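README: folding subset

This subset contains proteins for which both the sequence and a predicted structure token string are available. Records are stored as plain text. Below is the entry for Transposase, IS4 (38 residues), shown exactly as it appears on disk.
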Amino acid sequence: MLPRPQNAFARLKHFRAVASRFDKLKRNYESVIAMACA
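--- output ---
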């Protein structure tokens, strides 16, 4: 079983917008991260 931080990063990798940062505006990027972590 992976530790919690690794699990969190594994979940974030599923969101391609977070991994490649398509959103150039900070507000949009933060909202995508919040949605991915929810």
